[in-house]
Amino acid sequence: MTNYHCVSTDEEASGTRVEFMAEDKSCSDSFSCALGECEGGVVAISTELVHASEELDYALLKLPASGVEAAQSYGYLRLKTRAGVVGEQLYIPQHPMGKNKRIAVEDDYASNAALLSLSASTCGTEGYSYSGDTQTGSSGSPVISFSDHGVVALHHCGEMCANTGIPAKDIVADLDAKGINLAEFDGIDDGSNSIENTERIPAYTPPVHEATLALTSRLTLDGVIILASGFVTIDKVEFTLTKDSAVSFAVISVEIADNESFVDLNGDCRASYLDSVMYLFPKDSSNSVFFVDDSNANDFTAGGSVSFRDPHKTTLLKKGSYVLAIAPTGSSSDDALTGKAKVSDAPEIYSCRTRSSYGSYRLRISSTEGQNPFQFTRLPATVGIDSTQCHKTAEAICSG
Fold this sequence. Notes:
Elements (H helix, E strand, L loop, with lengths): L9 H5 L3 E3 L20 E4 L3 E6 L4 E5 L4 H8 L4 E2 L9 E5 L7 E3 L10 E8 L2 E6 L11 E4 L5 E9 L2 E6 H10 L10 E2 L25 E14 L2 E3 L1 E7 L3 E8 L19 E3 L1 E7 L7 E3 L4 H6 L9 E6 L2 E9 L4 H6 L1 E3 L6 E3 L2 E2 L2 E11 L5 E5 L15 H4 L3
Parallel strand pairs: 5-13
Antiparallel strand pairs: 1-2, 3-4, 6-7, 6-10, 8-9, 9-12, 10-11, 11-12, 14-15, 14-26, 15-23, 16-22, 16-27, 17-21, 17-26, 18-24, 19-20, 19-22, 24-25
């Protein structure tokens, strides 16, 4: 499958050459093939046009009889029938400018590529918008869910900073209306089994990854978020990074673990915590570098949390001045910049298992070993905690 604006006629389809695994010998920006230099395996020198839609900008092509062997050798992707979810992590394998394979997994701020909107209008077509670098020649690339490897959209175009893709579910519905049932060819991902897509991809030997650089703690502070008079406070940390660095930000707060047990994480002898989010902004800018809500298992356990609801973020950050905001979940970027949020419903602030008017958190900021790149210029009010003074059991602290 590709775009209509790439292949739209029988003549164009018959002259389409299909080649897989056209990629570099190494995964490095210092090595890049020019057009045609990184040859892959040619599986067809001609295709047949099954159906094309100018409105949805897609074309379904059929390989010759050898296509079955190609699917067995290289695997295949399936189109999702569900709608995309704003915020879901994505990746985009592509051949920008006709060059070697590149896979977009991050945006310009080293945040994960993600779905941004379900109703974008770019290049004259309605579709999904998402982050992640693309370029001329990326048209027709699959936009893939990071979680289960199903195709969310067909990349259609990019103008300025916006990528737009045709929703996979719309393509499936259009083909079905034309009497073409992709399920007959195992081309549908209905979401019933999250691991089925990986079973369509041949086994491979993962590469040996380079050792991860150790992180050194640069700041640990204990803060509190307070609800009063219909507003909830939002704490901000301002800092300057003196050089490009690998950095880590971790909020450790939720004290009801994912197994429902209570843990007094900060040793304050209280069962106060909040479900929080983090925003990072460049100084004097309203455009966030990243937004983090929940964490994956590896991140939050390594960071000292007991629940995925704590936000953790490890990333590469460029030299410059920044503002980090710690806020209750549900807070907008405007709230984060203002330093408070007006609430109509009780925010996710707790005392044990009931809602409360304040929630404690611990913030840890780290960077790779060596000279400290952080210069902290503004810190929020902190609370003093002496864990040696707490002699209660976890059950006694959280008896509710």
